[in-house]
Write a structure and sequence with these properties.
This protein is of the alpha+beta class. It has helices at about 15-25, 65-70, 75-80, 110-115, 155-165, 210-220, 275-280, 285-300, 350-365, 375-380, 390-395, and strands at about 1-10, 30-35, 50, 95, 100-105, 125, 145-150, 150-155, 170, 180-185, 185-190, 195-205, 225-240, 245-250, 255-265, 270-275, 310-320, 335, 340-345. A hairpin with a 2-residue loop joins strand 10 (about 180-185) and strand 11 (about 185-190). The structure holds flavin-adenine dinucleotide. The site of flavin-adenine dinucleotide has 42 residues, from helix 1, strand 2, strand 13 and strand 17.
């Protein structure tokens, strides 16, 4: 039998697992990450790549705990992108240096004065007409436009950059096809019968997104529980080079639609639509959802014509710790018991925050680096590569 001895096993190679692989390795731990499929193939490559600073959660004119917990994230990611942060993300593709908020008509006095408040300074700015992005520089646009201190990233390039230094430590293993060796809730090892491989570790971290529920069930662990929030996203692929990175706000505190613009490998472009249309669209079938998306774009941006548009509807669930009445969790989530951790970042932007929480917990448990996994054996095992963008992978 092949045997690997390591300090920490991370299950799941989305943004959460890959960020932890980097930060825990930097702390001196020997770390192995297990990914069932391609890296990021769950929620991460289906996300819109917005590094939120919390403004989306303050659209009702109140700075909630959610908007407070996340406010430091854009600056932290920017440092990483500049190669000056705790993780080196230099070379990652930044799709936009800012995200915008737009309204169809003039915004009410309440929200306008809220944005003008001192506490909002640096987080949201008015935009002069001369500086409007091209998509809004049209006489047909009559609403307000604000610039948010949020960046938008090309997520496959983020995942590739995070994976690159540790490629030999990222193993293509689906734990649902393996056997856990445990005593009560103490996990000793994972055995993969296909490769006759046993992996022993001091700690096991479950960062498998939607997969966490099945992992906990197979271990007979009942807490924490997971909730899934289904979404029905839309992607329209076309040939018009017209970037848009914006939430459109209507009467409610939820954006009617959030649109991000992506560049595909074949040179075409995709507008990816989330926000309320993706939440309310869960009940709609594919064609109905596509028709709703077409009508919404026509209504909100009537002056825009996309050349050669091709629409796709994409279903994906957000995986999160269970909340009362399916509300959104406020910050990155980590639960530790015995020698395992269960994690959901809840937002891609919060992956660094999640890593900090795990490092603090390992330190408080006095977990010290003890093992070095057999390098030759690691090199000989099968490794995972990075997933493409969801709409490209689906073609
Ligand atoms: C449509 C959508 C848009 C979003 N937009 C944004 C945004 O703009 N900004 C933002 O901050 N957040 C956004 N989010 C939230 C964000 O994408 C997620 O919080 C984040 O990507 C979760 O990362 P993760 O690593 O926990 O999970 P995932 O990315 O889902 O990764 C989990 C990985 O675990 C693997 N896995 C599962 N089970 C097993 C197993 N048994 N063994 C081995 N591997 C396993 C899966 O294959 C997968 O690769 C969005 C989410 C969705 C769904």
């Amino acid at each position: 039998m092949n045997e690997l001895n390591t300090d920490i096993v991370i299950v799941g190679g989305g943004i959460a697992g890959l960020w932890m692989l980097n930060s825990l390795s930097q702390q001196g731990y020997d770390v192995i990450l297990l990914e069932a499929d391609k890296l990021g193939s769950g929620q991460s490559v289906r996300s819109q790549g917005i590094i939120h600073g919390g403004m989306k959660y303050a659209l009702n004119g109140v700075l909630s705990q959610a908007s407070d917990a996340i406010k430091d994230m854009p600056a932290r990611w920017r440092k990483c992108l500049a190669g000056e942060g705790d993780i080196d993300l230099s070379g990652v593709t930044q799709l936009s240096a800012a995200h915008y908020l737009w309204s169809q008509r003039s915004l009410g006095a309440k929200i306008t004065s809220f944005f003008a408040k001192k506490s909002m300074s640096g987080r949201v700015d008015n935009v002069d007409k001369a500086d409007y992005p091209t998509v809004f520089s049209h006489s047909g646009f009559k609403g307000n436009l604000y610039k948010l201190n949020e960046i938008v990233l090309d997520i496959p390039t983020v995942l590739k950059k995070l994976a690159a230094p540790y490629q030999s430590r990222i193993l293509q293993i689906d734990t649902s096809k393996c056997e856990w060796q445990q005593q009560g809730q103490q996990i000793n090892a994972l055995y993969d019968p296909q490769q006759d491989l046993r992996i022993n570790a001091q700690r096991f971290i479950f960062a498998a997104g939607q997969g966490n529920a099945a992992i906990l069930e197979s271990l007979n662990i009942t807490q924490p529980q997971m909730q899934s929030r289904p979404l029905h996203m839309l992607a329209v692929t076309h040939n018009t080079p017209l970037p848009i990175y914006a939430h459109c706000i209507g009467a409610s505190s939820k954006p009617l639609v959030t649109i991000t613009h992506h560049i595909n490998q074949n040179g075409s472009y995709t507008w990816y639509l989330g926000g309320d249309i993706a939440e309310s669209g869960v009940e709609r079938g594919t064609q109905q959802q596509i028709d709703t998306g077409k009508a919404l774009i026509k209504d909100l941006l009537p002056w825009v014509t996309l050349e050669n548009p091709s629409w796709q509807a994409i279903r994906i669930d957000r995986a999160e710790p269970k909340q009362s009445s399916l509300s959104r969790p406020d910050c990155a989530f980590m639960h530790c018991a015995d020698n395992h951790f269960v994690c959901w970042p809840t937002k891609l932007a919060l992956a660094p925050d999640l890593s900090d929480k795990v490092i603090d917990a390992l330190k408080s448990q006095n977990v010290i680096a003890q093992f070095t996994a057999d390098k030759q054996l690691l090199d000989n095992l099968q490794h995972s590569s990075t997933s493409m963008l969801a709409w490209e992978a689906a073609k």
